[in-house]
Amino acid sequence: LDLRHGVRAGDDREEANAVNTDPSYQEWDPRQRRVLVFAPDGSLGAEIASMFRGSNLAHEVVVEFETLRAELRAGAGVLLLSPGAHTPRLEDLIADFRRSEPDWSDLTIVWIAGEERARDTAWRSTDDPRASLVLLETPLQPSVVRSVIRSALRSRRKQLMLRLRLESGDANTGHLEQLVGDRTDALRRVNEELQQEVDLRRKAQDD
User: How is 35-88 classified by DSSP, letter by letter?
Assistant: First the structure.
């Protein structure tokens, strides 16, 4: 895994505070704010986790498929996949998870992939507009990964706020369909912005 260093720590802390200091967000189960890292390829888990060193991004590394299944059920803010994690077995696991997601939820999946794998977007769901997937090509800087992760966590926070409205009865049944539709449109825009941010940062990195 080719990670390029040279991060401005001050900017990193400022971005982190923008995500995690919202009082309403802090009330949720901490598992809903964590980065769940799936790295079945062993040592890459520790290398990916090193990208979060010095930040306030809570993260947990998982190496077994069944553990991943259980942890997704328990809750996560974003799922980060290591290179080599994408297999037919993982596709089936993610498909099962997507089918079980409530209407308010659309967990973003960030996949660190090699250049050839990243160009293959066939994994993007064609029948579920909620299936947010962001592809990151290597080599890349850890700051790029952290920025994308924080954008995904901001998206998750909006989903959790929608959940709060639904559970509090603030949204009646007639209003639910509109809320979910608005949420789906907003998440699609967020996903597009995430990928645009990745492309812009990679261009700046290459220049």
Answer: EEEE-TTTTHHHHHHGGGTTS---EEEE-SHHHHHHHHHH--SEEEE-TT---H
Element containing residue 134 per DSSP (H, E): strand 133-137
pLDDT tens per residue, range 176-195: 556 666 656 666 666 666 66
Burial class (CB in 10 A: 0-12, 13-18, 19+), 79: buried
| Three-state secondary structure call for residue 124 | coil
pLDDT of residue 17: 47
d(CA 137, CA 163): 33
Token pair listed for 103: 């209407």
pLDDT on residue 38: 96
Q: Residue 114 and residue 185: Cα distance in Å, rounded?
A: 29
The CA distance from 77 to 99, in Å, is: 18
Q: Directed axis angle between helix 88-100 and helix 65-74, to 10°? A: 20
CB atoms within 10 A of CB 53: 8
Please list the alpha-helical segments (H only) found in 75-141. 88-100, 115-119
Q: What is the pTM of this model?
A: 0.76
* pLDDT higher than 90, residue 5: no
